[in-house]
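In response to the reviewer comment on reproducibility (Comment 2.3), we provide here a single inverse folding case reported in full, input and output, so that an independent group could reproduce the run without further information from us. The structure tokens appear first.
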């Protein structure tokens, strides 16, 4: 249990009260010995840390931006989607919080176990359906009497929308979301046990004049294999070569070996005026800044890397590497 830290002013006041007799030190010792009990609700067990919840919020903020772009293109109207909250609650509590008749899309997310649920408020779902059918985006709640055509159109719309979840989660795990069920009554849907902890990401959605919530329910069993990857340490850490697998290291090495670089052998350099350059003629000599016996500098992508000497190989001009360039005080590179 975390200890309470007193400020300097509180410490001074406490010492003053003890010295004047307003407070008895023995009473303080008795209070310390008393057991402090805090109520704990086993039905609402917290299985995710605040750090992990923040990571899930970041992932789904990206998902909300992707959904905004997707639905705006599909429905050709103003749409704004943002993360309203991220909470961990029992599955039973989530089911009680949503309407008795609503739009429920159940997706598998291989290779992760379990399934996730995307619930769209009927106001939002029917506004989307109205736009798909050429309307102005007016919401008419008749979820209890969906026709087969309306069911197919709505399920296709959300099935394609969930593809953006794959991109949003790509920084943590590669998933393949697929629509498995489309339901309108939450009572007919039992994904996990009632007391199972689920993470609920609520997305505030605005379509024209209609607004409502899109909720994403992710059970603990789905997130359990990737919980270590939801920490800030995982997001911020940088891999070292020792942490890279041999297969990845070999693949990276082969890729680097194929990279092309620009190599130049510098015979020497010189400075002349523009007037001297203008009056250069045949057989004129330009004096370089180094002696003929001095080694040449080899530049790799404009950076000096080696020292070499000129030569010839099979009637072609060549250079022979003498040593690795280590720089010097008189060098400007």
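Designed residues, in position order:
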């Amino acid at each position: 249990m975390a200890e309470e830290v007193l400020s300097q002013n509180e410490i001074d006041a406490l010492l003053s009260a003890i010295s004047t007799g307003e407070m008895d030190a023995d009473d303080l010792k008795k209070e310390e010995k008393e057991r402090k009990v805090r109520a704990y609700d086993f039905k609402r067990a917290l299985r995710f840390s605040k750090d992990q919840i923040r990571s899930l919020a970041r992932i789904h903020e990206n998902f909300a931006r992707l959904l905004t772009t997707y639905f705006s293109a599909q429905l050709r109207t103003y749409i704004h989607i943002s993360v309203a909250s991220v909470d961990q609650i029992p599955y039973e509590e989530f089911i009680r919080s949503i309407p008795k008749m609503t739009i429920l899309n159940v997706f598998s997310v291989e290779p992760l176990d379990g399934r996730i649920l995307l619930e769209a408020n009927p106001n939002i779902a029917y506004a989307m359906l109205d736009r798909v059918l050429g309307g102005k985006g007016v919401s008419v709640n008749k979820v209890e009497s969906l026709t087969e055509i309306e069911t197919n159109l709505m399920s296709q719309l959300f099935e394609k929308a969930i593809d953006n979840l794959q991109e949003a989660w790509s920084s943590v795990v590669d998933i393949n979301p697929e629509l498995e069920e489309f339901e309108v009554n939450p009572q007919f849907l039992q994904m996990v046990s009632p007391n199972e902890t689920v993470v609920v990401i609520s997305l505030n959605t605005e379509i024209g004049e209609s607004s409502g919530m899109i909720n994403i329910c992710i059970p603990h069993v789905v997130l359990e294999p990737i919980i270590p990857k939801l920490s800030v340490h995982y997001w911020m850490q940088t891999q070292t070569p020792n942490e890279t697998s041999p297969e990845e290291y070999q693949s990276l090495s082969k890729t680097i070996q194929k990279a092309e670089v620009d190599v130049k052998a510098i015979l020497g350099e010189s400075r002349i005026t523009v007037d001297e350059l203008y009056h250069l003629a045949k057989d004129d000599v330009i004096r370089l800044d180094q002696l003929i016996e001095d080694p040449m500098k080899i530049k790799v992508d404009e950076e000096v890397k080696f020292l070499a000497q000129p030569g010839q190989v099979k009637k072609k001009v060549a250079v022979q590497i003498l040593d690795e360039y280590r720089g010097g005080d008189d060098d400007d590179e």
